[in-house]
Every structure is written in structure tokens, then in C-alpha cells.
Design a protein that fits this description.
heterodimer; A: 186 residues; mainly alpha; 8 helices; globular; B: 151 residues; 7 helices; 3% strand
Amino acid sequence: MNRLSTEGSQQPQNRKRRTYTLLLPLSVLAIYAILSMIAPDKAFSALKGSGSILLHVAGPLALVFLVMLLLNLFVKPAQIAKYLGKGASAKGIILSAAAGIISTGPIYAWYPLLKNLREKGAGNFALAVFLYNRAVKPFLLPVMIAYFGWEYVSILTLFTILGSLAVGYSMTLVMKGNDQSSDGSH
Amino acid sequence: MHGSQQEGKIDKDAVARATRRSLKQFSTLLPVLASVILLIGLFDAFVSKGLLASVFSGNPMLDTLWGACFGSILAGNPINSYVIGGELLDYGVSLFAVTALIITWVTVGLVQLPAEAAALGRRFAFVRTALCFVLSIIIALITAAIINATG
């Protein structure tokens, strides 16, 4: 992605995003404030319930931070993403899937980069595999495991990665003639 | 990979940068997560299991479809889908519905569809969204069936 050309236009977008991010917490606090005046017992019960959920996720959240730190230290998603244009070879498939798994941040932040990669030849297969594999989040696994257990998380992760290939191949078939890269021939 | 390692040693600046970036990511994640947890508290206090049972009837196909629909409409950090899904399980909602919700939360984004169409083309965005929706239902059905059979 051309950072210089996009940074300027992203500033108002970031401000807008921050406003939206604060909108939900403020609305929820307002609901609690109103509720504590109308039905204090219910408000307390709701707060107590939230407290127990928070206790449940606090430990896994600490692990989430640690994994996030390691990923930020050793992996640069933008560098990995350049392999999205490598076609539907085994290497291309693995790299597209890995890029999706490693990618962090909201998807809308990735669209300018994906658009740029597409213009440089990244195919439908690679892009679809990348986007589907964003459902696999290594740094959120502690929370997921805390809720659903190892067995479930392992099976779901495996099927998600396999599913990404199915989406990739289906995209190639459906979009035949519309693909700009070499993997369109598959 | 980063240039953060030199001769086996980790660069202190790289660690500081990674820590700052992680704190920033974490701080953007927390307000919404805290709000979701507080909303679940409200949900817990006000929504009866009977009401949920009227939506999620226990029919695997219908539950999966409902879960996929909710997951496609809702968006945000996937951690919120895990918390919501985990609490829905406690409410007795089936694993079929919860799994479909978790998968579609990230793979199908109706909210982001216009942005995806603008970046990657309308045809690409619509076809991918439709394929992901269908595939998520299939994955949810298989995953939940395996877990139910083994668990």
C-alpha cells in the first residue's frame, strides 16, 4: 500500500472510526444510568452478570495481549500480504492462508492494500483465501479456547482453513474470465 | 518477517514499537468488548430463555441459518462473537447456531460489503459474500455435528 498517499485521507476516517468506537460504550453507560434510576435491582443484577463474564475472560485476555505482542514483534502483515499475488501454487495457497491468519486490525483497513495488490496481479483465489482465513485469529485463541475448549477450536480452525480453499476455488470458477492474475486459469 | 532480530538478539526499539502497537490495538478492542459484556449483562437480566427458544428452536438447520444471519449482519472484532457465542451456549442455544454466528461474523460482512465492492469489485464482493455464507453454514453443521457426536 502506498502509505504516503493514503495516510492523509485516512485521518478523518480514523477520527470518524474513533467516534463510532466511543458511541457504543457511551450508549451502554447511558442505558445503565437510566436503568439504575428506573429499576436499580435489575441494573445491579445486570452489572453483576457482566462482572462474572469479565472475570471469565480476564485471564485469556492477558494471553491475547501477549500473543498480540509477539505477532507485532515478529510478523509484519503488509510484507506477508505481498505473496498474495503468487498464484494458486501450493506456495501461493499457503502464503495467502498464512497472510489471512496473521492479519490483524479491522478489514476495512485492509481494503486499500488488497485493492493495490489486485491491481498488481493478485488473483481472486488468493484474495478469497486471504479474506476467509481472517476468521482464524491466533491471538484470540486463548479466549476462544476458554469458552469452547480445545477440541472445538481445533476442528473449527481446520474446517475454516479447508473452507477457505473451497471458497478460493469456487471464486475462481464463478469469476472465470474476470480474474486478472495467473491463478484465474485454475 | 521483521528486521527486529539481529544476530539472534531482539532489538529493544522493535520491542518498544511492538508494545506500543499492541497497547494501541488492545485499547481499541477494549471499549467495544466492555460494552458487549455490559450488554450481555443486560441481556441476562431482561431476556428470558423462553424468548431465545422461540428464535432458536433446536432445529439444527434453522438454528444454523439464524446464527449465520445474525453473524452476517453483526460486525466487529471476533472476540465479541466468542463472548456472545459462549453466553448464548449457556442460555441453551445450540452449537450449530453459535458456530454459524462465529464464522459468519468475520467471513461474511454485510456492513463492509460496499467497501469490499469498491475495493475489489462488485461481482467479487457479492459472489464471495454469498459463497462464504453458504460455506459457513456447511462448516457450522459439520463442526457442531462432530462435537455433538464426540462430546
